[in-house]
Amino acid sequence: MLLRILISGLIGAASSIAFSYGAASVPCRSGSHGADTVCHTSEESQSLDSWKFGFITGSLVGLLRGRNSRLVSCLQPSHVSVASVLCLGIYMLGEQTFGLRTKSNNTSAANSSYSPRMQAFLATIRWAETGTSNHESYRKLVFNGTFNDFSTHPLIKQCAPINRKRVCSTAAGAYQMLDKSWYDLQPKLNLTNFSPASQDKMAVEYIRRNQAIADVEAGNFDAALQKIGRVWASIPYNNYNQNAKTLKQLRTYYQQQLLVYGGQ
Predict the structure, then answer these.
(1) How many CB atoms lie within 10 A of CB 190?
(2) 123: which residues sit within 8 A by CB, 6+ positions away?
(3) Beta bridge partners of 169
(4) Runs of H (alpha helix) within 25-152
């Protein structure tokens, strides 16, 4: 009886994960050309969480399919108790031992370890630099296209005219980091890749270097922007002349992101 319940539960869990991931990954496949690594990572995390429903459902099916027994005769109190304990035990084992608990999915899962104000500030920089603050921003090349390999900085130089001047740059990712930024920060921050989490760490390090962390955490948005103005061309406090966002635009977007991340 117990073996039948366990096998049915495992089959149900596997089926639930496979079905959930197949349905959830459709938006990833229908996006831009190439595998969207960030999108698939998010969907895999969500799909894994569906194993609980599948296991419990499969276990109940195994319980009710007693050999040479009818549906009603199978529902003995001892069997129900054993099945319940078994399901609960594996549920807790999976969450606490194997880490299958799925965290809430925010606009950027990569920076969920930061405070709401820092997340909103980072989202504002991503939007200013790439035109979006969602997962797609982490794949942006400076002028045209995206990249899919997060194992390292893409190291791709692109050129385009900006205000009648030809500008060439290797900027890439959500915060448009240059190749020289990667060579500088990668060993110092012990980064193993150019993933969204690594890109967030690089951005926070530049905020720290410009002594703006305290301003961000205190909600002093304008003061923080002034201190990082020379780091990002999209911030108005510099003379790069590369079509920076206005202070009003940045304030408005930041306030919107505070609501998204639960800051004040």
Answers:
(1) 9
(2) 107, 108, 133, 253, 257, 260, 261
(3) 158
(4) 26-29, 37-48, 51-64, 71-74, 77-96, 116-130
Q: How many helices, marked H, and strands, marked E, lie in the chain?
A: 12, 2
- Look up residue 15 and give its two tokens: 């089926």
Q: Which CA distances in Å does 167 have to 80, 129, 142, 148, 237?
A: 70, 16, 11, 24, 20
CB 107 within 8 A of CB 44: no
Are 82 and 37 in contact by the 8 Å Cβ rule? The answer is no
Asked if residues 37 and 148 have their Cβ atoms less than 8 Å apart, the reply is: yes
pLDDT profile of the chain (264 residues), mean per 10: 70 66 47 42 49 66 58 49 50 44 41 89 98 97 97 97 94 98 98 98 98 98 97 94 95 97 82
Output the six-digit token pair for 114. Answer: 């930061």
Can you give the pTM of this predicted structure? 0.61
Residues in a beta bridge with 168: 159
Q: What CATH number does the domain located at 109-261 have?
A: 1.10.530.10
Burial class of residue 89, CB neighbours in 10 A (0-12, 13-18, 19+) = exposed
Specify which residues 162 forms β-bridges with: 165
